[in-house]
Amino acid sequence: TDSDTADEAVRATCDDATTCKRFATSKGYWKDPYMQYFARSVGERKAPEINRGYYARVQGMNHLLDAFIRKTECDCQVINLGAGLDTTFWRLKEENLLPRKFFEIDFPTVVARKIHNIKKKPPLSKPIIETHSTDSLLLDAHSLDSDRYCIIGADLRDISTLDQKLKKFQLNQELPTMLLSECVLVYMTPSHSSNIIHWAAESFHTAMFINYEQVNMSDRFGQVMIENLQRRQCNLAGVEACQSLESQKERFLKSGWEHADALDMMTVYSMLPQEDVARIERLEFLDEKELLHQLLQHYSICWATKDKLNLGISYITL
Ligand code: SAM
């Protein structure tokens, strides 16, 4: 059916994210020794502005996530919604920043691929086994559950099944919780994404939600971005919610979150440690600065918090 085709195109977007991240790391934008196990070849060259965009995206997300984990002294859990082939679990393990449990959700077919890779590659499976205390590690074709890391196949549009599965795998509603969605909500209707945002606010008394996606999409440049994705059968059902930084914040504030902030990625780029930015700007020559600025102005990071435990997480910023 049409909706199966659309879902298949959405699932394929995780390969885009992975190959772009793989290419940028191969150029030295940032280090990720685990990416190679999910994307075997470096693939074709990506334009410098794309690489810089991914650099800002990864640094921005990591900065906020790490700040949350430090504030909670690792006494927290993370739920990565639409995680794709993300490697954050392994980075956190390596940096001694593992939360009590790290959950990932994606469509069952994406999850099956990820688990297949984990099973075959010792550098991926070893850290999972090392952080597991008993012999009860669950590792079958469609789910993985260990003490510290859990991958669940589920459709994010079906909240009750999602909630049920997370609880089955020991989600703890009392723990400070980080929810991540990186280029995910834009593929769902605004009502599906507000259901998730609302469910998250109801489920945890102390939590932070970080959402990365397109913004300012009503101008000419935004229209061209939408057309490019549609050409690949990819339905940006949620693009309505991406009109402005205000609308990004608004959907959290009206769904039970106490505090919300949003920045476009050009602003994020200018706030990143400037020494490191100078380093990556030397990696590849970029003639057309204007193109980078335009591109970065059409993506944003929005984060929302609620803090019953008064941990100070609403002060986390870039
Ligand atoms: N967050 C990862 C990253 O940034 O590297 C992957 C991003 S990729 C663009 C979007 C991911 O969201 C895909 O892996 C896709 O399968 C997943 N996704 C989109 N809609 C979903 C849904 N309704 N249920 C579960 N996963 C979904």
Explain this structure to me?
By secondary structure, the protein is an alpha/beta fold. The chain has 12 helices and 9 strands. It has helices spanning 2-27, 48-71, 88-94, 108-120, 122-130, 159-168, 190-203, 220-231, 245-253, 265-271, 274-281, 289-296, and strands spanning 77-81, 101-106, 138-139, 144-145, 149-153, 177-182, 206-214, 259-264, 299-307. The protein has a 9-stranded mixed beta sheet with strand order 3-4-5-2-1-6-7-9-8, with helices on both faces. It is globular and about 55 Å long. The mean pLDDT is 95. S-adenosylmethionine (SAM) binds at residues 10-11, 13-14, 17, 82-84, 86, 105-107, 110, 155-157, 182-184, 187-188.
Short description:
This protein is of the alpha/beta class and 318 residues long. The chain has twelve helices and nine strands.
H/E element order: HHEHEHHEEEHEHEHHEHHHE
Number of DSSP E strands: 9
Range of strand content: 15-25%
User: Structural class from helices and strands?
Assistant: alpha/beta
How confident is the prediction overall: mean pLDDT? 95
Distance between the termini: 43 Å
Shape: globular
Helix count equals 12
Strand order of the largest sheet: 3-4-5-2-1-6-7-9-8
